[in-house]
Amino acid sequence: MKIWNREAWIESGTEAQRKYTATLNPLAWVLEYQPTILLPGKGQIPLEPWPFQQTFMACRDRFRIINKPRQCGISTIVAAEVAWEFDNVPGAQIVIISKDKDAAINFHTYVYNILRSVRKNNPNAPKLVKTNERVTTNEIGAKISSLASSKESGRSFSATHLVFDELAFIEYAEDIWQAANATLSQTKGRVTAISTPKGRANLFAQIFESENNMGFTTFQYAWWDVPTYNPCYDEYMKARESDDKGLVKKIIAKAKLGEWYRTNRPKYTDLAWRQEFEGEFDANVGTVFSVRQIEKAFVRNYLKQKDDPRGAITEWWSIPKEENHQYVHGIDLGRKNDPTVICVYDVTNKPAKMVEFKYVEAGFCEWNEILAICRETVEFWDTVGEHDGTGVGDSISEGLDGFSYPFMFTKTSKQNMIELMQHAFDFKMVQIPKIPLLFREHQRYIWDDKDIVQDTVMANGLAIKQFHENDDVFSGFAELHFVGEV
Ligand SMILES: Nc1ncnc2c1ncn2[C@@H]1O[C@H](COP(=O)(O)OP(=O)(O)OP(=O)(O)O)[C@@H](O)[C@H]1O
Ligand SMILES: [Mg+2]
User: What are the domain boundaries of the chain?
Assistant: First the structure.
């Protein structure tokens, strides 16, 4: 497909010819009337569609679906396309569904911005009749409405073009789709579905995975398709044209040396990156730690097994303490039927190294004995750290006062902690001995962890949380969190 720019467009025909073509073709309309878009930090610039935006715009199929990386310019190009439709197709009824009210208003702003700027270059554009933050109409009976998703939103309109923005994140997508389908078949309406993937349990993934894609034409883009992300973009496009897969791979590897990749990649775990920027559906289902993550973090067991003379500690692995080294800990306190687990790390050097692992079986000790084990561990290593303070009585936390700080687990704080662990594993920031019990629980750990044994993962996470942060790659010892600052 030929890729256009403004210059080539102007040379392609007389003004009258070009203007006529612009009424029939959205890309021609953009090239002719030059709507502007807002670039943060740069202000309004004329929209010059990138090659993948042109390919997408050129597709006039009724049903289109796009799997896209974050912030790649898709909402912009779809907004330009529907703005063209609004100005050129009398009676067009365009409905955009977004995940919530803010997103709906935001999309409408994109469209309105394009409509307004086009009117500076095209005095013959149909007059706007009514406009507010979510609805715009014109004198040729066209209407653009931007709606937030709700259970009912599929019933409340009759569209000639239905757009789902971030479909995988839209609640009630199935309901809306079913309700809208009936009217769409009457209006012979079009559907455009856009999203970054989010697991497999949604309509977006279902369309991609079903046979014939439920009648949709599919588009799939990753970060390397975006000129501002890929410094080797021209080379990449040439390699793609020549259909040389090996060369494409090589160029993508080279693009990873570029600044955009090097600044952004470290902010994400492998899984999150593949989902957000490489179009991967699978990223948040199944086991939490990928085989690669486990391989990066766990090494042959270098700790020595120790015996507890009291017989209270079921499993005890350790190495000698070193002078002037800095240690942190994480403790998962056993309640009722759970074991107590203690992990200690030496954080003096990179990667941080687990130096002790203690496991006290459930129902084996009284609370005061458990407390004593925690206390002597923390005193011996002279560490700061945190214990799981969720639902334990004050007396327990008080008993650890000054040695270890309570951490309260909520769904979000737990997820953040686990993501931090994935990140630490990905970037080889931790070294963990392959103690069978510890190793196994990490391998098997799943997001929905209600029914599985996970105590060693929690203790380990609390320890890792003491020294690792995922916004810069290694924060080291200087930035230990204390209670209240987390
Ligand atoms: N052809 C282009 N040239 C230059 N900048 C562009 C172009 N297309 C889009 N942009 C800019 O890229 C940024 C992201 O665009 P947009 O919001 O459309 O992307 P998106 O893929 O919908 O992102 P999100 O993941 O946030 O939904 C915006 O600042 C937009 O103005
Ligand atoms: Mg968007």
Answer: 6-221, 233-284, 291-479
pLDDT tens per residue, range 175-217: 899 888 888 888 899 999 999 998 777 899 889 888 789 999 9
Question: Which CATH topology does 291-479 take?
Answer: Nucleotidyltransferase; domain 5 (3.30.420)
Domain 6-221 CATH assignment equals 3.40.50.300: yes
Omega prior to 90 cis, within 30 of 0? no
Q: Which ligand is nearest to the CA of 68?
A: 1
Asked whether 365 and 375 are in contact (CB, 8 A), the reply is no
Q: What is the reported pTM?
A: 0.69
CA distance 215 to 190: 11
Render pLDDT for 50-95 as a digit per residue (tens, 0 to 9).
999 999 999 999 999 999 999 999 999 999 999 999 999 999 999 9
Residue ranges of E strands in 72-189 = 93-98, 128-131, 135-138, 143-148, 161-165
Choose which residue among 76, 196, 219, 229 to substitute to test ligand 1 binding: the one with the highest number of ligand atoms within 8 A of its C-beta: 76
